[in-house]
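FORM 7B - TANDEM STRUCTURE REPORT

SECTION 1: FIRST PROTEIN
SEQUENCE AND TOKENS:
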Amino acid sequence: MITLALAQMVYFFCLQAPFTGGRMDCRACPRRVVGFLDLRDDMMTYYFVLAVFVAGFLIIYRTINSPFGQVLKAIRENEPRALSLGYDVDRYKLVAFVLSAALAGLAGATKTLVLGFATLTDVHWLPRERWC
């Protein structure tokens, strides 16, 4: 319930914040030069997004095949047993939630970079098919 309440708070903040454009959406997200990367060039943007994807994929792969990932698998299969083995289940769940939120945020930022705009439906927690 707290997650849903926070999602609604973020949605209404984005609805009223002047830099998001409110109901008119954020249409002014131009590509820029970041360090030595000229993201205005389509091929450079492609390679940047490819690098972000590969880095995200490697992070997920390494997380799953690490001792941390094995504990997450144990929690998924039998949480009381993992708790009885001495693992702090709540802490592992929190770290997994933070990692998934960070990867979702990175995906959203990459989508905005590629498309050049972000709509208000991108920050709402309901699936798009329910909006129609």
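SECTION 2: SECOND PROTEIN
SEQUENCE AND TOKENS:
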Amino acid sequence: MDRQSIAPPATPAQALALLLLALTLITASGIAPAHRADWLMENIVPLALLCALAIGWRWLRLSCSSCLAIVLLLAVHELGAHYTYAEVPYDRWAKALCGHSLGAALGWQRNQYDRLVHLSYGLLFYRPLRETLWRLTPLRSGWLVALTLSLVLATSALYELMEWVGGQYLGPDTAQAFVATQRDPWDAQKDMALALLGALVSTALGRLRDACG
């Protein structure tokens, strides 16, 4: 029995509350964003995902923990959508909080918030993807894990392709904000690697929880 994947579905009240929270996060991030066109581009995928979940809820019925993971991922993403990924002022916040630069302390030469988002994608979106496959396919155990990891990597690559194609047709300022490579020629590969790393960590944590349970 695959114990990690059989959490009971969220109740309609729980699902509705989390959906409203997700829509609130999107609305809040859209209040005076740093770059309106980039904010619009960044929210195409989240809104499409929420619409798909709402339409397919009757058949899918994700667990409350999976829905919460999606909302947490959305919260991380929407902060980046508000400021743009390359300009989230976490260094300024760190200096205000403790008087020291986080970037200087860790030797960072660029804004690393986009890396956090991609790591969070693998870490948080692994669970709802795995649960979806468990509910809709006969896959279990190693095959289920393998396909879920493959989907995390594939969807991460698809997003990088969307950034590349979108960047070709946007104005230079919007393209720079949306793609946010910050002059790193290996940006796409690093983003995908971090998404995979996050999914592997989520897999390990699930195994550990099962072993301890």
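SECTION 3: OBSERVATIONS ON SECOND PROTEIN
The mean pLDDT is 89.
Residues 34 and 83 are 5 Å apart (CA to CA).

SECTION 4: SIGNATURE
Preparer initials: ____
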